[in-house]
Amino acid sequence: MPAMTELPGAGVTRRHFLEKAALLGGSAMVMTALNAWGAGIASMTSAPPALRGSGAGHKLLILGAGVAGMTAAYEMSKLGYQVTILEARAFGGGRCQTARKGFKLTELGGEEQECKFDEGQYLNHGPWRIPFCHRSTLHYTKTFGIPLEVLVNENDASYARFDTVKGPLAGKRVRQFEVRADMRGYTSELVAKAATSGKLDTGLAKDDVELFVEYLRGEGYLENDLSYRGTEGRGYKVNPGAGIDDPGPGVPSTPYAFPDLVQSKLWRMVQSVGTFDQQHTMFQPVGGMDRIAKGFEKHVGHLIKYNAEVERIRQSDGGVTVDYLDTKTGKRSTISADYCLCTIPVSVLRTIDADFSDTYKQAMALLSYDPVCKIGLQMKRRFWEEDDAIYGGHVYTDAPGINLISLPSSGWQSAKGVLLGYYMFGADATDMSGNTPAERTAIALDVGQRIFPQYKENFETSFSASWHLIQYNLGGWGNWSAEARKVAYPVLNKPDRRIYLAGEHISYIGGWQAGAIESAWHQIAQIHQRVAA
Amino acid sequence: MRTALLAAALVTGTFLTTAPALAQDVAKGQDLFNHKCAACHQKTGLGVKGAFPALAGDPFVVGDPELVVRTVLQGRGGMPTFAALLSEDQLADIISYIRQAWGNSAPAVNAGFVVTVKTNAHPQDKAPTVTH
May I ask which residue range the UniProt record assigns to the signal sequence (chain B) (predicted)? Predict the structure, then answer.
């Protein structure tokens, strides 16, 4: 361990060091991979608005049968509104999709992919996680009886490997628990020793310093002399078992050296708790995320006109008129309604001929959309479980833009599995999406092979999606800059005459299904209030 | 070199906004464009109707170079920011390429100009991506 003299020198107070130490995990935000932990956004609304009275005699036209559109249809048809949904795709759900055997996708400018996963295997190429705090999403999974299972969103036993760093740990595969234990151990040791030697201004009374040190002793697995020398939590060289010495008590592991760990930047993975929406317990629907879409469709499917591509939107004093194309028959139709809830992503909506006010159009222009890419790789053997004892969770890599490899939280101990080979954003995603599906697969396999030597020999088939290249989405989700959130978001929360917007983008829970649901709840309450007035 | 250019820009406050493009710049720009940009704008520069704008024959692309550079740096609509992914040299090569490819005819831009625009750009025009 470094001596205290190696702590930050002149001009930096000991307290400042303590604050720095406490913020170690905060650097996680540097990596997009760990932006999962970056900003706490959580849904706190747990039930649809309690709307009284009746909507009978009023026509509501909903554009888009995604989670927002179907939420509104479900709640408003219960109130007696005459609801119609226009959906451009042949199925409901919007971005809530699951790729399984036979699922087809042709990205704009790309070749057709047909998913060739085995029966029972799937990839949630859209939303894939339901946090415990998203009570609105959980309201509907419960209402529709959609079975959930836990998605392992953190797995201490899983691997990490950083190649673009300095020191002996560069390019070395480590278990995450080794890094977590060692970083917290060494940090606790430094702080505990400083606090007990009077070199740290803790601002605590003498008795309280003792309590604080007691905390550090537990937090960092410190010995009696306040040194960190490892802990069983970071794993063994040989696991304990039966017998006297083979393996008997096992062989403990040795901590990495502090300077090596600091140089490795592996501490980017370490944070006391995840942000609110990435913590335990994380769920997924059994069998695929589109179980949620199917749950809604079971109740509102009869209200949906499928293959109906919106071409023109017009408003008059009395209502909203929408022209749409039946992409199957080529037939054009017009539909009118008293009110319209438009859940079409703004990335798509701004390309449609619509007579929104200039203010509304300017506000829409300020919302950008994030390019997002995923790939699913079917492996013929669950080597991560069988050979490495890793059950679900994420493998972290600093391979450019890849962010993470995620192991499936379903089908434990079965023969095969589909893992998420990358989850990419921004310019990295546009970069990846310029490749053919075969080229994307080759890149993903190269990255995975660095972590698991069993990767390539077990690979069978892949399916990849680039949301910015997917018609009717043109992006993963809306991305509000601070400025746009201030000037444009409030405009789009209000109606343009008789048209209201909803979707994840009209919320502070962007990119999540909860945002779609709660924006729908918010807007139907506004519509109903107006009708009732 | 970049630092020197930046220093020069800061000292003199002036810049040649454009310079004659060297052949190798445009060739490099084409290669970069095909990898980094063609997923949306297509190698043909024709974009995808209703989704991604055509760059071929686009008055914006051959217009004010500052606006073009700013757009690539900051992103716009569904387009991400490329400020962190590509160097000023690479950005200059790409932008020079699109201003001169597919029948477009506009002066190239140099790395120094990109540096100047970057210095004046608002870094927070796009929020960081948060995973879901």
Answer: 1-23
